[in-house]
Design a protein that fits this description.
single chain, 598 residues, alpha+beta, Alpha-Beta Plaits, five-stranded antiparallel beta sheet, 10 strands
Length: 598
């Protein structure tokens, strides 16, 4: 035990303690570690900031852009519509379809993004199938983790592959995880579909039965029966004025849902939209007919409106306050919701009752569900807002996949196929696909910048030099030797199993972004001691970091479904512990059969 080894182990321990206690933001902690590693000389100045240019960081950054491109072009929404069609059947089939869909998306998307894409559809499926959401949402979250096991496109897998390259071993290819990870994913999906029904709790939010199973959001909130229409007479006082200037909301107290003009209906018009003579305005709210007449408006019916409040461009969504939202107790007027988000709140569901009048003056509460209408791009922005959680979306009638969506899907496929065929390195292929998505207008450059989770990028880039220090000081070799001394008597497979369990446990309290940086050098050192395949041994760390099944705090996807599913802390371990034991057995068999570690 040398001084540099003791120092780097102390840094690892201190960083783990700060992460667990949340005394510092993870990204700030990573940057402070960079400072300490540089001042102590544990990492050479030339390598100190190299994490920002590593292939692993570039790949992860590109995947954020690719994921956002798929969402903005409507490709993921189109997949969600197909998911609803495929899930027709009983509870077992619904669980199976939801889990498989999330797992497939997570092959090429960030896990949390894959879960967020499927979440709105799954809430809708729960109501249509008359199932408690708690029967579907843990399978959704776990499915996103299981899918990531079978591909390189997962943060932990990318980081372990990067560590192999730094230690002069061949990094993983796109398909290297399939031989072990795919059987694990299939076993996990099968376990959730067969045994999940018995292990998953039955939790229903009180009063939720008021949103009737089988209906769309518009029907569930009885919106279609409340929508009325007025004809704008020639010479009307409000003709020629925008919705904002005419005071349709503030003065008349009406919530405008659409404008019908020349047989075409513009749903969720912007406040700057000018009302013209002869227009038909669709709205909700109460107003005296004589007051309408004074403004040159008369009640009418629009034969062109079929009752749809959602379309290819307009979403109808159900949104709730996130668990740590700062907006509880504030009214929509106080937070200037309409001006800030350019979305309309049509109704509020609270404790079994639907509120539709004077919504701007009602203080928001945790547990409220807000029915909102607006542009899909605005809904996407709302999904990234930490104050809100989008629960369900009416996607309108299924249509053809837009051309831009086909472009996005083609570029994503190329980013997977070219590295799999060894035609391009993974970082280069992913980065090229991300740039081409901007070039072909799948998303703008500004949207590309917004899509990147910079906190994750700085966390990973800041932590990578810690892995360099663990290997460079000899700390990895020392811990690897300890590990071999304790488990080596049972052979390399036992050591791999120990690393797998250690990675699983650390992931529950740290994250899949930190654990692989710490453990991957140790796995490589242990393999060298045992003269085993370092790539096979390192896979134990990579796959162990995907085993975030025991606590809600172990992965963001678990936190995402905790509120909508009504889950308690122990519900995750209730399902996740037996699932983890099954996956451990499958992992050890796969490592022995396909990687020759016995």
């Amino acid at each position: 035990m040398t001084l540099p080894i003791a120092l780097v182990l102390a840094l690892v321990g201190a960083a783990a303690l700060l992460l667990i206690t949340e005394r510092l933001r993870p990204d700030l902690l990573a940057l402070l570690l960079l400072v300490v590693l540089g001042l102590t000389g544990l990492v050479a100045p030339a390598d100190l900031f190299a994490g920002f240019s590593r292939n692993a960081v570039i790949t992860i950054l590109a995947l954020f852009i690719i994921t956002d491109g798929l969402e903005r072009t409507g490709a993921t929404r189109w997949l969600g519509q197909r998911l609803q069609q495929a899930a027709a059947g009983g509870e077992t089939r619904t669980v199976l379809v939801v889990t498989v869909a999330t797992a497939v998306l997570s092959l090429v998307m960030n896990n949390i993004a894959a879960a967020a894409v499927v979440l709105p559809v799954t809430i809708g499926l729960a109501r249509q199938r008359q199932l408690p959401p708690s029967k579907l949402l843990i399978p959704l979250s776990f499915g996103s983790l299981l899918g990531g096991m079978a591909t390189l496109f997962t943060t932990a897998n990318i980081l372990v592959s990067n560590t192999l390259a730094e230690n002069h071993y061949q990094p993983y290819g796109v398909l290297d995880f399939a031989l072990v990870g795919l059987p694990m994913a299939l076993a996990g999906i099968g376990f959730l579909a067969v045994f999940g029904q018995r292990l998953l709790p039955v939790r229903v939010r009180e009063g939720r039965e008021s949103l009737r199973p089988g209906n769309s959001l518009a029907e569930a909130y009885q919106m279609r029966e409340l929508v009325r229409a007025v004809y704008v007479k020639p010479g009307a006082a409000l003709a020629g004025l925008s919705l904002a200037a005419g005071g349709w909301g503030g003065k008349l107290g009406l919530n405008v849902l659409g404008l019908s003009r020349g047989g075409a209906i513009n749903l969720a018009p912007a406040r700057s939209e000018v009302v013209r003579e002869g227009d038909v305005v669709l709205f909700t709210g109460h107003i005296d007919p004589q007051e309408l007449e004074a403004y040159g408006l008369i009640f009418t019916e629009d034969p062109g409106w079929t009752g749809q409040l959602a379309s290819d461009e307009i979403s109808l969504v159900e949104v709730t306050l996130a668990p740590r939202s700062s907006l509880a107790g504030k009214t929509l007027r106080e937070i200037q919701f309409r001006d800030r988000y350019n979305l309309s709140v049509l109704a509020i569901w609270r404790e079994g009752n639907t509120l539709r009048d004077a919504l701007a003056e009602i203080p928001l509460r945790f547990g409220d569900a807000l029915l909102m209408q607006g542009q899909r791009s605005r809904i996407q922005q709302l999904r990234k807002n930490p104050n809100f959680l989008v629960l369900e979306e009416d996607v309108g009638e299924a249509g053809a996949l837009p051309r831009r969506a086909w472009v996005a899907l083609g570029l994503t496929a190329a980013a997977v196929i070219l590295p799999a065929a060894n035609l391009l390195p993974i970082a280069q292929a992913a980065f090229a696909a991300a740039c081409l998505m901007v070039l072909f207008n799948c998303l703008s450059m500004d949207e590309a910048y917004e899509s990147i989770e910079w906190k994750s990028v700085f966390l990973i880039a800041g932590m990578l030099p810690l892995g360099t220090a663990i290997a460079g000081t000899g700390a990895a070799a020392l811990i690897g030797q300890w590990l071999v001394s304790g488990l080596g008597g049972w052979g390399p497979l036992a050591v791999a199993g120990g690393l797998f369990l250690l990675a699983t446990l650390l992931t529950q309290v740290l994250s899949g972004q930190v654990t692989p940086v710490v453990l991957a050098p140790i796995a490589i050192a242990a393999a060298e001691h045992l003269q085993a395949d370092p790539r096979g041994m390192a896979m134990a760390v990579a796959l162990g970091c995907s085993m975030a099944f025991l606590t809600p705090i172990s992965h963001s996807a678990n936190m995402l479904v905790m509120g909508p599913g009504g889950y308690k802390f122990g519900d995750y371990a209730r399902v996740g512990l037996p699932l983890s034991l099954v996956l451990l057995v499958v992992f050890l068999i796969g490592l022995a059969v396909f990687w020759g570690i016995h």
